[in-house]
Amino acid sequence: MANVTDETPSREMVTRLAFWKTSKVKRMWFSTQWKRTKPGDGRYNNFKRLRHEVKDFPRGYPQLAAYTNSEDNRHMCRRFGYIRSRLILYIQDEVQQLEKKLADLDLSDATNEETAYRLHSRRWDEENGSLRKDLVATLKVKLKEYDELVLREHQMLKISKPSRKNHIRYFNYIWEEKPLCREEYEFVFHEDDMLDLATEPESEWVGNVIDFILALLPHKILKV
Q1: pTM for this structure?
Q2: Is a pLDDT exceeding 70 seen at residue 35?
Q3: Crossing angle for the helix pair 11-21 and 23-37, to the nearest 10 degrees
Q4: Tell me, what's the pLDDT at 112?
Q5: What is the DSSP string of 3-38?
Q6: How far is CA 88 from each of CA 43, 149, 154, 174, rounded to the nearest angstrom?
Q7: Alpha helices of the chain — where are they, by DSSP H?
């Protein structure tokens, strides 16, 4: 084994990082805390009957859902980034087209002495059922649709992508177990379009740093 220098993380620190990174250890810790706080009259014994393993669920969507729900880092799904961008572009152009029609109508009225007064009264449009009234009503609906889509996309972009390691684990499970037909599990092939629903954006870098440190160190140093 290579000598550990001052710049190399100690074996104890690396062991702790690898130890606490596993969800199994976290469950063991919380289980210990639970045992310390639960009453001794056996009222919680039946809780064990509610715990199911992934294999207990029927093969297909039930088993894949159970697998996905069994660990936080398995909660991932498609973002459909291309489709979202396509829809935003389409609705954006629809609004832009309505905007141009409204501008053309305003210009037409403004350059005609007999219709220029219409630009001075919203109520005239309201009372006479003008084209401007219809355009504004359509713009209200279309802008609401556009705003909702843009704001949803803004929120979606805040969700982190799964780490490559977690995605590979999820991919391998689907590839080996074949819980769905081929056409319906192809979503997992889109690695760059996946969302990690469990990882907070501000904590994502911590896991990446830990993975980076563990990958650089010799395998032997990770053995306890």
Answers
A1: 0.66
A2: no
A3: 80
A4: 87
A5: PP-TTSPPHHHHHHHHHHHSHHHHHHHHHHHHHHHS
A6: 54, 7, 12, 32
A7: 11-21, 23-37, 61-70, 81-110, 122-128, 131-157, 164-177, 182-185, 201-216
